[in-house]
Amino acid sequence: MTAELLQQTAQRFAERQPERNEHLAKLRAGAVLEADTPERVRQRVARVARMVIETEGTATSASGQPSGAAQTVLERIMGKNDLMSVRYLELALRVARTVGRVHVKAADGSPRGYGTGFLVTPQLLLTNNHVLDSAASAGASRVEMDFQENVDGRLLTSTFFGFDPASFFTTDKGLDFTLVALKGDPAKASSYGWNGLAAAEGKVIVGEYVSIIQHPSGERKQVAIRENRIIDVLESYLHYQTDTSPGSSGSPVFNDQWEVVALHHSGVPKKDAQGRLLTKDGRVWTQDMGEQQIQWIANEGVRISRILKHVEGLSLPGGQAALRKQLLESPAGWQGGTGGAREVAEMNVPEVSEPREAWMWPEAAPAAVTAPESAVEWLMA
Q1: What is 283-341 written as a DSSP string?
Q2: Domain spanning 93-197+307-346 has what CATH number?
Q3: What are the structural domain ranges in the chain?
Q4: What is the model's pTM?
């Protein structure tokens, strides 16, 4: 994380204080569905309803009100129900396999540190621009998959992939993202599965909780699960309260359906009256303490919809255009790989016998179901 990036994040955070205070006041009052705009709430409810239609067959009762799984999900959004299906945990393990530790090197091969990245197709990895800022740096770096413990607390055997920026590389400093191809056999990487990205609105609203799978400060893979609340939605960014650490740059930010909603990239540090950074125990921070000791009051992620819009507008040659097409057309959510039996077995999770498409959305809801509008009216009552 650069000083320039932290300054820009802090400035955005400060400029949004009036709006954020209004959001927080509504959240404290329990008016979760009033903390975001009516249009965004409608989009979120509609997306939840379509998801339940796909998995459950129906989302409303005869009266038009949410029922069954749909009502449970909506109550969870409102903070009235914290119960999660066991499927949530099993899917989390599969999604976690798509996240790796990026060993960052300069173009001359000298080490620069660590970041996090995650697979968004069988051949493409997404991370931050400030993690991999050039094709030369990407070409010298690599990603380590499976740097994590199994159920016995022992480290799995890591698998490394180099990057192939000649096949695909695009980066943007403003949105702080880098998308780069992996080197080697695509089938080997695809065994980890990948996260299909969605440009559509309705993936998350103010007041919802998100989860982040990460390699904080280059450490073993960890997860900050449902303790990260969205407190503001900007045009290109999400602000959320969490305890992600430096080194978590490039981590995926997930909603409760394990769809990627943002790319984590920066934070807002706590300061004293003199503008000095403070540590977690209230002391004035100095560089020798390390960034992991800084007290963060909020974090910022780049909205996935804005990244996809940027990538879609790029002029690319044939081979790179084909890889982009795969990215843009992949169904949203976790997509099963072609293998991965080793880690799944070691985690005592039932192995997926064949690739499957999770969280697939129909083109439109069945004509007999008119849930979204009546659902919003019911929730607002």
Answers
A1: PBP-GGG-GGGBPEEEEEEEEHHHHHHHHHT----HHHHHHHHHHHHSPSEEE--S--H
A2: 2.40.10.10
A3: 93-197+307-346
A4: 0.82
